[in-house]
Amino acid sequence: MTSPRLQIAPNGPEFSRIVLGLWRLSSWQMSPAQRVEFLQAALDLGITTIDQADIYGDYTSETLLGEAFAHTPSLRQHFQIVTKCGIQFPATLRPAQTSHIYNTTGQHIIDSAETSLRSMQIETIDLLLIHRPDPLMDADEVAAAFTRLHESGKVKYFGVSNFTNAQFELLHSRFPLVTNQVECSLMQMAPIEDGSFDLAQRLRFAPMIWSALGGGALFSDRGEVAQRIRTCLEHIAEQLDVTTSSVALAWILSLPSRPLVLTGSSRVSVLAEAVQAAQLRLSREHWFDLWRAAKGFDIP
Fold first, then answer.
1. Active-site residue among 56, 59, 102, 157?
2. Which residues, in sequence order, are CB contacts of 213 under 8 Å at separation 6+?
3. Which residue, of 101, 219, 248, 286, has the greatest Cβ tally within 10 A?
4. DSSP annotation of 188
5. Does the pLDDT at position 271 exceed 90?
6. Is the torsion defined by CA of 273, 274, 276, 280 positive or negative?
């Protein structure tokens, strides 16, 4: 069983529907050889897309990935690399940065992309995202930076993360974007209800989903909503003979906007459950049972 793949936008890249999220990589305390082994295990499951950001692990995560690529150079050719820029905060590796800000100036975008390339020891970033909406973002300046990076061959495609529909459409009007990475889970349905996924369908791009299991809250939160969802998940999982996490991810993957789901675990078994979810087909009855459990009331 391997992760299916899809083209995420017209004239866009082809990614695996399950994306290897490495925002916790620095906390996993893996040696370069262990990182290589982990990446190979993901490949064996058909997970070929990696999600990074310049700030992850206090600016260390991209370097840790680069060490794995340096250890086994043949790995790089099998992966598509997604990374993000636009957030700055004080850190040991950024002593000159004195405050927490958003920065989408053209020069910062270009400098960040070039730093990411060096850190990951790669020649091209497959997809660069603006990490968070910046109230001071000049869409024309961002588009000019994107154009320079694309024409230089340093970045193939561009997108955003956590943007509202209006913010997405603004930047998309200046430069073609291929995705918006947003939070969505049975405990966070905002993109389903605020038009984000409707916009994705209209423009025919696949959104990327972070925190698809509610940051673990689906299985640890003691509140009424989480317990109600868990009961429903367990009932469906028993019927389908799969894990509850596979059902929760399948619920998101069933959406017609064709979302990609990011993982966040160092356990290969968790990656396998995500891949299982990408193969799982929930009935409409099951999907709406989970919707009701999350909402606490029936559909009108």
1. 56
2. 185, 219, 245, 248, 249
3. 248
4. B
5. yes
6. positive
pLDDT digits (tens, 9 = 90+) for 28-62: 999 999 999 999 999 999 999 999 999 999 999 99
- Please say whether the dihedral angle defined by the alpha carbons of residues 87, 93, 94 and 98, taken in this order, is positive or negative: positive
Name the residue ranges covered by the structural domains of the chain: 13-178
Nearest to 171 by CA among 160, 161, 181, 162: 160
pLDDT band at 1 (very low <50, low <70, confident <90, very high): confident
What are the contacts of 33-37 at 24+ separation with CB within 8 A?
A: 33/71, 35/64, 35/65, 35/67, 35/68, 35/71, 36/68, 36/71, 36/72, 36/75
**Topology of domain 13-178, CATH:** TIM Barrel (3.20.20)
**pLDDT for the residue numbered 230:** 97
Residues 6 or more apart whose Cβ sits within 8 Å of residue 19 = 47, 49, 50, 51, 82, 208, 260, 261, 262, 263
Asked if residue 271 lies in contact with residue 45, where contact means CB atoms within 8 angstroms, the answer is: yes
pLDDT tens readout for residues 241-270: 999 999 999 999 999 999 999 999 999 999
Closest CA to 119 of 50, 75, 69: 69
Q: Give the Å distances, CA to CA, from 101 to 77, 98, 105, 112, 231.
A: 34, 9, 12, 14, 41
Active site residue 56: yes
Q: Could you give the 3-state DSSP secondary structure of residue 60?
A: coil
- How far apart CA 121 and CA 32 sit, in angstroms, is 14
CB-based burial, 236-257: b 16+ in 10 Å, e otherwise: bbeebebbbbbbbbbbbbbbeb
